[in-house]
């Protein structure tokens, strides 16, 4: 095999840049380049967000950079094999096929897909708008976009914890920043606050490392966060602990909210959430009395059919206690002086926007993020319109989207699937064209461009690997070839210059400067008001009412519930899918020995009593079954869990296994469903709180490679 060594584009030295091995943290790092290769990657202690934090994924990036199984050249499928082709040929092929499909069926027949919020995403959304397609597949309905969209509607932007403002208490709700550093946050910030003496409340069905450190841990039943938040609001209002000044001067419909809370009983909250009233009342009192207090919430809250109302109830807690936009509370930070990412590209024409499927999921529809089942259906049935092609940049859809079997059917039905990735993922294996993407060490870009903490920083290209190109480079090339409006730049650097115009900087200057931040101002609502119909914080949303939705947050039982005896008889356990583990981002990293060694197999946490009932010991392989399918993971016994709750890992596929078992054997999305009922506003599916059964796995059922431990971290390229 030809030497895959990366080529440095800088002389030996130490370079400040922004990590992106997890698509989220953008931790400031210093990459030491010696003898033309990465000697080490260390945390940058001067970074104002990450403060020198660095994790195993960042360290493993050096292995990733030179991994022998990375895609090195564009490839076009020929029957069952792949032909490596020059970029020119690949781009011409893709552009001409896409134009044919556009001319025949309309631009909406071309889906564009991406995964989690990555720094290049404005290019893929810009490409979709310029092309004129509303058929956008991303993680909006599964991730934290319900929180972002609702926050924009009610308070202008996502209120992020102001760790620099020294919160006296942090309530971590459905988040686990020790293992996952979601958008806007890095664990070092929370750790710093706790070391400075902040109190800690954790709301999580699992006793995470953080929960073990907490003053109060509320072991909530999965998917009942809306009910618990309402219960806490009820305590605060009943005991007159709310911030009177905020409520009187800046809010609207408080009396309706109070009446709404009177309509629920504490007995109901206890029964639904399985948290004792005395415990959540204590948490509510602390959260309402310590000033300032911050709410650090995560997707544990959102990945279920109550997503938007759970977010609303949490936002109410922040507002009610006067912790909105105050130092050390939850702040809507002003953006840095860069052009908003969507202003760089043309807007989706109104007539095309109107075609977005799923208008009934109104909040998702407004932002052109239709629930995914509608797009898979369109591929499979041609209704409401045919979808015949998909460009997939950075999404391993077969593993990370609910109902994997259906995703496979839908993608396999396309006339053209183009995937840009680092490796031959199960999704890439279905493609007609695969394109080699550049990692964070191989590209110039503005880090955290689309985040909400007010910072951006510079990420610089240090290496080239094979013929890999950054996603921005690929999409710019494709857009130009197709003659799309707005794709005017001759190189990505010109677009970066344009993005930086408001700061009066060009890319090269920003690279030297390294970082920009918007001005930090608090209580901006005093001057600006809120972006609601009333101009105040609305405890009852005028916008939701106008759309015909229940205007105050409410809870409904998940579609599969332990409260339904018929379901519970067959599937007695409540399943969480996807609590994160530090070594892996989503479905990534299973090829990297440095990470796989840390965590070689997927684990499902179950209570020892539940394990004893099915004759399972710690480390045994078990079968997890739902109405949708069956997978295998290894049991990890955890005495702190509710004995009825199990927590399985997500993102698992085995690069070392050929064939469908690679993505079917342990992929938790074989168990999830994508069909209604969904969250009525955002179309979120139940990734937390579905019903399952767990039993001992029979040796014959499990792929041989897993039992013999024949997992070679380097894996099989799968080509
Ligand atoms: N059951 C269940 N499902 C879930 C979740 C869950 O908790 N449970 N979480 C959901 C959430 S919150 C999210 S955001 C999604 C995440 O879903 P995805 O974003 O699809 O997750 P990843 O596996 O991280 O990334 C997909 C692919 O992108 C490639 N990649 C990474 N960076 C780049 C890049 O810069 N360019 C290119 N071209 N490719 C790149 C990786 O190699 C990987 O194959 O999953 C969702 N699905
Ligand atoms: N290492 C690593 N880091 C990541 C990712 C990754 O895959 N790996 N993914 C990135 C992505 S896409 C995202 S969106 C963020 C997500 O990061 P976070 O928002 O922190 O979310 P998770 O880590 O998925 O889950 C947080 C906690 O929610 C708990 N939980 C599960 N169900 C419920 C529930 O119903 N209610 C409550 N209150 N809690 C519940 C879980 O037990 C878990 O401890 O992380 C990002 N960072
Ligand atoms: S949390 Fe993410 S950005 Fe930060 S060091 Fe780890 S992989 Fe890199
Ligand atoms: Mo996410």
Automatic annotation (TrEMBL):
Every 4Fe-4S Mo/W bis-MGD-type domain range: 12-69
Record's protein name: Anaerobic dehydrogenases, typically selenocysteine-containing
Signal peptide feature range: none
Family designation: Belongs to the prokaryotic molybdopterin-containing oxidoreductase family.
Pfam families in the cross-refs: Molybdop_Fe4S4, Molybdopterin, Molydop_binding
GO molecular function: acetylene hydratase activity; iron-sulfur cluster binding; metal ion binding; molybdopterin cofactor binding; oxidoreductase activity
Keywords linked to the UniProt accession: Iron, Iron-sulfur, Metal-binding
Record field: transmembrane: none
Keyword tRNA-binding belongs to the record: no
Top-level taxon in the UniProt lineage: Archaea
Keyword Cell cycle: no
Matching InterPro entries: Asp_de-COase-like_dom_sf (IPR009010), MopB_CT_Acetylene-hydratase (IPR037949), MoPterin_dinucl-bd_dom (IPR006657), Mopterin_OxRdtase (IPR006656), Mopterin_OxRdtase_4Fe-4S_dom (IPR006963), Prok_Mopterin_Oxidored (IPR050612)
């Amino acid at each position: 095999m030809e030497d895959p060594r990366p080529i440095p584009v800088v002389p030996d030295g130490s370079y400040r840049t922004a990590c992106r091995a997890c698509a989220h943290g953008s931790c400031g790092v210093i990459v030491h380049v010696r003898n033309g290769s990465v000697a080490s990657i260390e945390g940058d202690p001067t970074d104002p967000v990450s403060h020198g934090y660095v994790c195993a994924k960042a360290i493993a990036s050096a292995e990733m950079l030179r991994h022998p199984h990375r895609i090195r050249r564009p490839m076009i499928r020929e029957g069952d094999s792949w032909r490596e082709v020059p970029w020119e040929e690949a781009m011409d092929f893709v552009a001409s096929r896409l134009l044919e499909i556009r001319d025949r069926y309309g631009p909406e027949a071309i889906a564009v897909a991406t995964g989690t919020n990555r720094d290049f995403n404005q290019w893929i959304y810009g490409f979709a708008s310029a092309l004129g397609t509303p058929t956008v597949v991303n993680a909006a309905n599964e991730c934290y976009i319900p929180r972002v969209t609702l926050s924009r509607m009610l308070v202008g932007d996502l209120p992020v914890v102001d760790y620099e403002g020294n919160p006296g208490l942090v309530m971590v709700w459905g988040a686990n920043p020790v293992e996952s550093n979601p958008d806007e946050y890095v664990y070092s910030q929370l750790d710093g606050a706790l070391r400075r003496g902040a109190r800690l409340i954790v709301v999580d069905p699992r006793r995470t490392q953080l929960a073990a450190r907490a003053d109060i841990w509320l072991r909530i039943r999965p998917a009942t966060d809306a009910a618990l938040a309402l219960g806490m609001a009820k305590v605060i209002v009943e005991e007159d602990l709310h911030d009177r000044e905020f409520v009187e001067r800046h809010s609207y419909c408080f009396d309706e909210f109070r009446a709404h809370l009177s309509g629920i009983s504490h007995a109901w909250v206890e029964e639904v959430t399985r948290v004792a009233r005395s415990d959540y009342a204590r948490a509510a009192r602390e959260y309402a009395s310590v000033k300032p207090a911050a709410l650090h919430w995560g997707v544990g809250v959102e990945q279920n059919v109550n997503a938007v109302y759970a977010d609303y109830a949490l936002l109410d807690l922040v507002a009610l206690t006067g912790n909105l936009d105050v130092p050390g509370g939850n702040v809507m930070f002003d953006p840095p002086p860069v052009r908003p990412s969507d202003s760089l590209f043309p807007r989706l024409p109104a007539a095309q926007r109107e075609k977005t499927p799923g208008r009934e999921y109104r909040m998702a529809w407004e932002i052109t993020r239709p629930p995914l089942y509608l797009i898979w259906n369109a591929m499979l049935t041609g209704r409401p319109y045919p979808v015949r092609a998909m460009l997939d940049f950075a999404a391993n859809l077969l593993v990370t989207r609910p109902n994997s079997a259906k995703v496979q059917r839908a993608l396999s039905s396309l006339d053209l699937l183009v995937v840009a990735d680092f490796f031959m993922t199960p999704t890439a294996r279905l493609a007609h064209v695969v394109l080699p993407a550049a990692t964070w060490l191989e590209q110039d870009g503005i880090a955290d461009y689309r985040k909400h903490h007010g910072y951006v920083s510079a990420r610089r290209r240090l290496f080239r690997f094979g013929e890999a190109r950054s996603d921005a480079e690929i999409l710019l090339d494709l857009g130009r070839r197709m003659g799309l409006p707005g794709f005017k730049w001759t190189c990505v650097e010109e677009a970066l210059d344009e993005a930086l115009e408001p700061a009066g900087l060009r890319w090269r200057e920003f690279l030297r400067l390294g970082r920009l931040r918007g001005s930090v101002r608090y209580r901006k609502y005093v001057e600006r008001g809120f972006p609601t119909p009333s101009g105040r914080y609305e405890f009852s949303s005028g916008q939701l009412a106008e759309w015909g939705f229940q205007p105050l947050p409410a809870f409904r039982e998940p579609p599969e519930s332990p409260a339904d005896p018929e379901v519970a008889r067959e599937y007695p356990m409540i399943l969480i899918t996807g609590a994160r583990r530090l070594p892996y981002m989503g479905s990534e990293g299973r090829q990297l020995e440095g990470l796989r060694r840390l965590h070689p197999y997927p684990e499902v946490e179950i209570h020892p009593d539940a394990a004893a009932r099915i004759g399972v010991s710690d480390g045994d392989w078990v079968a997890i079954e739902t109405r949708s399918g069956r997978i295998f993971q290894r049991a990890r016994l955890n005495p702190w869990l509710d004995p009825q709750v199990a927590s399985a890992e997500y993102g698992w596929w085995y690069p070392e296994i050929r064939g469908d078992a690679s993505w079917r054997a342990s992929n938790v999305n074989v168990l999830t469903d994508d069909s209604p009922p969904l969250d009525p506003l955002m179309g979120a599916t139940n990734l937390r709180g579905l019903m399952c059964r767990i039993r001992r796995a029979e040796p014959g059922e499990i792929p041989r490679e897993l039992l013999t431990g024949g997992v070679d971290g380097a894996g099989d390229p799968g080509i």
